[in-house]
Amino acid sequence: AQKVTQAQTEISVVEKEDVTLDCVYETRDTTYYLFWYKQPPSGELVFLIRRNSFDEQNEISGRYSWNFQKSTSSFNFTITASQVVDSAVYFCALSGSYNNNDMRFGAGTRLTVKP
Amino acid sequence: DGGITQSPKYLFRKEGQNVTLSCEQNLNHDAMYWYRQDPGQGLRLIYYSQIVNDFQKGDIAEGYSVSREKKESFPLTVTSAQKNPTAFYLCASSTRLGSIHEQYFGPGTRLTVT
Hints:
Oligomer: heterodimer
Radius of gyration of chain B: 13 Å
Number of strands of chain A: 12
Strand content of chain A: over 45%
Mean pLDDT of chain A: 92
Distance between the termini of chain B: 36 Å
Number of strands of chain B: 11
Helix content of chain A: under 10%
Number of helices of chain B: 0
Helix content of chain B: under 10%
Order of helices and strands of chain B: EEEEEEEEEEE
Largest sheet of chain A: 6 strands, mixed
Structural class of chain B: mainly beta
Number of helices of chain A: 0
Shape of chain A: globular
Largest sheet of chain B: 7 strands, mixed
Largest interface: A-B, 28 and 29 residues
Structural class of chain A: mainly beta
Low-confidence stretches of chain B: none
Distance between the termini of chain A: 41 Å
């Protein structure tokens, strides 16, 4: 069975602080995909990143970076110099190797960035 | 602009009534999905469809029904058999069958049943 755990329910930071959102996953598949989505107050989930299990390179996109570590089954997301517009719920998700039908989402982390 | 449209954004119904939520996409995606989101929880899969005229149950299909008569459209009916229908419903689509691609989401419909 696949499972995604986001232990941090809510995080509050002050603007310009760095913040890391944790994601731990469980799967028996050797090939799998990990995702991060952002859900702003409007409700629509916005795709941020997809990473396959064979690619452990960390990725940076502007103020966003992702740290994938298979040894600890973690796929953490860091926002550097946070901004008020980063306030949202962030979901980590895991999908098996064959199709998207078994995508599992974590419970989400609500990030509030205060001015 | 390509995207996924869900309407309406807010929907109110009386208990015992069936209600249909609309989902349309113009991304030419093969696969479409319906998720339910409850406060403090992640998304749970209700139904999915990989091709026209075919759909499969997800984890929480009881009390729901769908149809896929056109590639662009995947409406969800919440029936009176659904015990706790009040929730936020999200429709999504992805590009290809038999492979892993990110899903693109619509803006969601918040359903309140009283």
